[in-house]
Amino acid sequence: MTKRLHVVGKISRTWNNLATRCLWMGTSYVIITPYLNQHVPMSKAQLGKPAPAFNLPSTGEKSVRLSSLKGQNIVLYFYPRDATPGCTTESQDFRDAQAKFKRANTIILGISQDTIKSHEKFHARQSLNFDLLSDESGEVCTKYGVLKMKKMYGKEFQGIERSTFLIDSKGILKAEWRKVKVPGHVDEVLKESKLLNKA
Are residues 75 and 163 in the same domain? Predict the structure, then answer.
């Protein structure tokens, strides 16, 4: 009986041996082996270490590079999709607290795999006062380990697990929240942001 191990990332070739078969499936690889039955994240995000770099297209017809934001704390929140109920509420909560984050020397950035066109529409409709970044390829999502296998209507697909990361003014990852539940989340992130200024 074979068991699946999902690995996000590029593999240069396909190989076979007694233990492992590697199959190309869409934008990711699934390694099938009789010995393993777990998801292996390819996250490069580690607390206390420099946050994974990115340079992504953003709302406002610009690009945002992490290295250019040093001197400010950064809230980086990954969400599944524009205009869905949970993502809308979460974005509204960050919008309403933006002034408090600003006083804590913290900027807010939202990331999903939606297109910039979708982001611009969502940004305008919700009157968001921070930028949304587009990671259509999923490269940055992979670096932060937020792409997970999900199931809907009996079908499996890869999507973003709602997650938030707090990066300090020197570019160091200081806190992370995974499998985020929206109610009360922004207040918790704001509390941690304020603590960074006292460190």
Answer: yes
